[in-house]
Write the structure tokens for this entry.
Amino acid sequence: MSRLKRWGKELVVLVLLVAVVSLGMDWLRSPQAPSDWSSTPLQTLTGETVSLQAMSQDKPLLIYFWATWCAICKFTSPSVNQLVQEGENVMTVALRSGDGPQVEHWLRKKGYQMPVINDATGQLSSQWQVSVTPTLVVLYRGKMVQHTSGWTSYWGMKARLWLAAF
């Protein structure tokens, strides 16, 4: 029984260590909204002009910075697409993934129907100080209330959107 107790303690220490490192990495890689972001209209691949400020007024908005070449995004994008299909408030930003037709082709090939702002040169992501893909930002009522980078589960994203409303 003492061996089981020791392993339990070591597991608790390991979980706490992983949590501290994860939170520290999120803090170090935290994006920052540019000063003029609320007045900047953005255009999606479908030609729709959107305002992140307006989109985040009534309910939390998940902004997903991703790339076609990002290995971790291959695991996160299906969950983001599922959130979109369920009617969640989501906008995605394709970082340095080619021109509009290339990104559209990639989305069709994967079967994704996510709203996408194409950031072909990385200028928008740079303004937001996004240095890692994937990065998730949650805006609510025009304020950034949460952010994280790296892989996040479907339920993790759902929880972030739910918690942002409080």
User: Anything to note?
Assistant: The mean pLDDT is 90. The first strand starts at residue 42 and ends at 43.
